[in-house]
Amino acid sequence: MSGSGVRGLADQARALATRETTATAHVRATLDALDGLAGTPWENLVASRCDDAALAAAARADEALAAGDWIGPLHGIAVAVKDNIDVAGMPTRCGSAVLADAPPAVTDARIVTRLREAGAIVVAKTHLHEFAYGPTGAVNVSGPAAHPHDPGLIPGGSSSGSAALVAKGIVPLAIGTDTGCSTRTPAALCGIVGFKPSVDALPTSGVFPLSTTFDHVGLLAADVLGVALAWGALPGVAHVHTPVAGLRIGRLRGANWDAEDPGIAAALERAVAALVDAGAEVIDVDLPETGALLDAYPVVTGSEAYETHRDWFEAHPERYQPATAALLAAQRDRPAVDYIHAVRSVERLRRQALSRLRGDLRLDGLVTATTPLRSVTQQQALSPDPSVARVPLLRMCSPFNALGVPALSVPVRVDDGTPVGVQVVGLPSTAGGHGSHPAESVALACALAVS
Questions:
Q1: What span, in angstroms and rounded, lies between the C-alpha atoms of 333 and 124?
Q2: What is the DSSP string of 342-388?
Q3: 375 belongs to the catalytic site
Q4: The model's pTM
Q5: Residue from 159, 160, 162, 182 carrying the catalytic annotation
Q6: Which H or E run includes 292?
Q7: Angle, to 10 degrees, between the axis of helix 51-66 and the axis of helix 23-35?
Q8: 125 is catalytic
Q9: Catalytic pick among 4, 96, 125, 158
Q10: How far is the C-alpha of 170 from the C-alpha of 2, rounded, in Å?
Q11: In terms of Cα–Cα distance, which of 444, 441, 401 is closest to 424?
Q12: In the annotation, is 82 catalytic?
C-alpha cells in the first residue's frame, strides 16, 4: 500500500458514518496521495483530476451528514473513474491522441450519476489501454501504466489506472469497464478484487464503446467486502443474501482452463477447498463452447470497434498508438457476413451453455483461474506476438463476457507473494434477464468464501 492513509472501502465507510473522519479530510488525503505520484513511475495512472469539484462535493457530504442525512456506504467516498467514462466537466480522452482536444463532458455517464446518487465523490479519471482495446495497460498516448508494486511490470488492462490506484491504497473504490477481461485481469495482476456484473446490470450509457455486444461496467476495490458494499449501495441494484452452503459449483476443466503456473494452480486448489469447507458441492465440468466463443469474440469486438473508429482511423491512422492501429487495420476487410455469423453464434452458444450448466447440471456458479499467467514486463506486453500477453490475459475471462454472466477476480495467497487471481462466476436462474441479480449474489458469496 501507499502512504496515502486511505483505508479499504468498508473501513473508510465506517469511519465516515461514525464521524471518526470527514469526507473533506478523506478527499484531501486522497488528493494529497495523488499529488505524491508526481515524478514517480505511477504519475500517468491519473489521466485528469477535479480537485475543486471534489472538495466542494466533500463539503456538501459533510453538511448532509451533520444534518442526519446519511445516504449509505458510499456517502463521502472518493472514487476514481476510468477515462472512457464521461464525468461532467472533465474530458474523456480514452488514453488516445485521437481525443487529445476533447472538450469536457456535458453530462455524467449513467454509472457516474448512480455513484453520485449513492454519495460517492469523483476525484480523478484514470489511465487505460487505448480505447480499452487491450488487456495489458501498456498502450496509451502517455505511455504504459506501471504495476503498483513493480514499475517494470504491467498492471493489466484495460482498466489499468483504476486497478493500480486501488492496489496502491490511494482510492478505496474505482470504476472500470470490462469487454473481455478489463476489470478482472488488472485486478488479478495487481492483487485486488475486480467485479464484472451481468451484461446491462450496470448502465453503459456515457461509456465510450469498444464492443456494444460485450461491454460491461465493473467495480474495483481492495477486497470482496468493498466490492459487495459498492454493489449493494448503487441505486437500482438489489443484493440477495446467498449462503454458500448447498450451492453447486462447477470447476472448469480443459485446455483453456488449465494454468501451467504451479502457483496459480495451487491457488485454485485452495479456493476450491475453501468453497467445500463453506458447504458448497464442487464438481469438475467442461465448457465445450469455449473454443467457439473464443473464435467469435475477436470478430465481434473487432468489427464493432472498427465501425466506431472507421472515419477517424481512415482519416488519421497516425493518431492511434501502433498496437491499436494494427488491431483496427486488421478489421478493415472483414465481410459483414462474418460479423453477423459471429453475433448469431455467440447468442446460440450462450443459450446452449447456460441451458446445460444451469438446467442439466444444476450449477449455481463456476470457479477457475482469472489468468494463466502473472504480470509480465512492459516489453513483453508490447510484443507483436499475441501469444505472449494479449491472448493469455483474455482467454479465461472473455467467455464470460460472451455469456453475459457475472464474474469476480479474487486475490488468493501464493507462497512468493506475487498477485494471483481466482475467478468465481455466478449463473442466472434462467438464460435471460438478471432480475434481482441472484447470479451476482452467488458470485459475491463464493468470492467471500475463497478470499
A1: 39
A2: HHHHHHHHHHHHHIIIIIIS--SEEEEES-SS---BHHHHT-S-TTT
A3: no
A4: 0.96
A5: 182
A6: helix 290-315
A7: 160
A8: no
A9: 158
A10: 7
A11: 444
A12: yes
